[in-house]
Design a protein that fits this description.
This protein has helices at about 1-25, 160-165, 205-210, 235-245, 285-315, 315-345, 350-355, and strands at about 40-45, 45-55, 70-75, 80, 95-100, 105-110, 120-125, 130, 145, 170-175, 195, 220-225, 230, 260. By secondary structure, it is α/β, with parallel strands linked by helices.
Length: about 350
């Protein structure tokens, strides 16, 4: 009996400890503290820099440190940026740089950046953009740099982007690697200072495009044009003259090279003179056709002149033959006269008679 009572008392001592062990399982998980990193991301040095690399996120992280300054999400599958995508629960007043590369973003809806009032740099490079809402960049009045490198290959979005950038005060716009064949004049808001057009499909800048660069608000715009297939023919003359006059507006002007025609391939543009550029006949342009037509016409005229000359000779063959016969007879008479005088001067009797006095 005493042993049973001791065992009962011993078992009762373990019950409080067992309850404490099971208590965390009964309570809901605690929310992450405001300054902690999301579970799918990590902080670099401090919570002010958050990086989410190749985490296969389907949407932006919900819990982000309020003090974050730089946020980088790379290699995810965000697909669509919905309104307030990064500040759905609370604003991020200190976020200045948002980098979203290789995230398969296809659409940016209205007010997608709402809650990021201090955002200054947005990087949407390497995303297959298909649709950009007119108010996609509303709510970020301090946005100064927009990077869209290799982001406009899936669909032509110039009109949509022009509407979305209308109320922004951008200073730098990057459009490298988008296969552009002309200057995107509609995407150049007044006050833009730098435009990156490297690695596109630009062959030249036309006279109309150059005039758009002289519009008020764009006269200080600097262009970067490296790695474009520039064609060094007569159509390049307006751009080459503009480049030689305003080389300071193209920081990589000294590195620009001709992609064609073959005789000028690899030649530095600044070593060429506008008046020395010839028009290629195979370009299909109007100057080439005019030049080819002029050479053909000149050849036809020479051929007609030759034919007329031969016909004149043929029709006057008898007169020409008579004239040649008379010319030959005259030459023969002249030669016989010279021969007779030579024989008279060479006669010794005539010489002695002339040299003997008194005879």
């Amino acid at each position: 009996m005493a042993r049973r009572q001791a065992r009962a008392r011993g078992g009762g001592l373990w019950l409080p400890w067992l309850g404490l062990a099971l208590l965390p399982l009964a309570l809901p998980p605690a929310a992450a503290p405001p300054g902690a990193c999301p579970s799918a991301c990590y902080c670099v040095a401090t919570p002010e820099l958050v990086q989410c690399r190749y985490e296969r996120l389907e949407e932006p992280p919900k819990e982000l440190p309020v003090t974050v300054h730089n946020l980088s999400i790379t290699g995810s599958n965000l697909s669509i940026l919905h309104p307030a995508a990064f500040a759905a629960r609370r604003p991020l007043p200190d976020l200045r740089l948002l980098r979203l590369r290789h995230d398969n973003i296809q659409a940016v809806e209205d007010m997608a950046l709402q809650g990021l009032p201090a955002l200054r740099t947005l990087d949407l490079s390497h995303n297959p953009l298909l649709w950009v809402a007119p108010g996609a960049f509303a709510g970020v009045p301090l946005l100064r740099t927009l990077q869209l490198n290799q982001a406009l290959l899936a669909a032509p979005l110039e009109d949509q982007l022009a509407a979305a950038l209308r109320n922004l005060s951008l200073q730098r716009l990057e459009l490298a690697g988008n296969g552009l064949r002309a200057l995107p004049a509609t995407l150049l808001p007044a006050g833009l200072e730098e435009l990156d057009l490297r690695n596109n499909s630009l062959q030249r800048l036309t006279a109309a495009e150059l005039r758009s660069l002289e519009a008020p608000g764009l006269r200080g715009l600097r262009l970067t044009l490296g790695a474009n297939p520039l064609g060094c023919d007569c159509a390049l003359r307006p751009f080459l003259a503009w480049l030689r006059a305003t080389a300071a507006r193209v920081p990589d002007a000294r590195s620009l090279r001709c992609a064609g025609p073959p005789p000028l391939r690899g030649t530095a543009l600044l070593r060429l003179r506008p008046e020395g550029l010839a028009c290629a006949a195979d370009e299909g342009g109007e100057p080439g056709r005019l030049e080819t037509a002029s050479y053909v016409f000149f050849g036809i005229v020479l051929a007609l002149i030759g034919i007329v000359f031969l016909m004149v000779l043929y029709l006057n063959r008898r007169g020409i033959k008579r004239w040649l016969h008379n010319l030959r007879e005259a030459c023969r008479d002249q030669m016989e006269g010279y021969h007779y005088r030579y024989e008279q001067d060479a006669d010794p009797r005539r010489t002695s008679a002339i040299g003997t006095p008194g005879l």
